[in-house]
User: What shape does this take?
Amino acid sequence: MANRQGNNSPGTELSLVDRVQRAVREAILSGEYEAGSRLLVSRLAQENGVSPIPVREALRRLESERLVEIAVNRGATVTPISVNDMRDIYETRLVIETYALRRAFPYFTVTLLDEAERILYGMTRLLADARDRQAHEQHRRFHFILYEPAHSAWTMHVIRQLWTGAERYLRLSPEMRSTPEAFAAEHAAILAAVREGDPTVAVSLLAEHLRRTETLLSNTAEGSTITPPGGDASRG
Assistant: This one.
């Protein structure tokens, strides 16, 4: 990982923690830090140009996201990945995200759905241009704009955690993705049902979308072991 210099003055400590957390999270999600690899505080501090203090706090936060495991006398390691873990994530997403979408229905507005349409268009263009990281962010925005009107802080908290876990598998299995047009069509169908005010159809389409993704990921994993391409933060 490239060195990222920072300011270690006390007034910037919180922002330093945020910055290290984002950098290490991205390295884990992209596979730069392999599942099971050690995360040495000294190495991460050097790479990010900070003292060990914000690194330790960032690792504690990432532990709460289930991206890092911290053990006494062993330190921090990247959380392992497995087909069972992926299935657990998607089965939980299925329950919580369909609940959120159904609960949000009374609060949808034309303005909000027009914004969802714009996000969907942007996501499709980014996928066509192979700008996967930006496309994933727009994909996340599309789903979240349909869940947030449910006005449930705890529901959204859990959904964010699940999306972070799911992103590891999606980014490590690019070969399982459908075409940008087909992927966009699934989301356009969900949005169309929302516009028509039909929660039953919208929830059913969302459930199909999540099940299809889980099946594709499972088939990919069974056909070839999910193996990140990168290294770890214990290497010099």
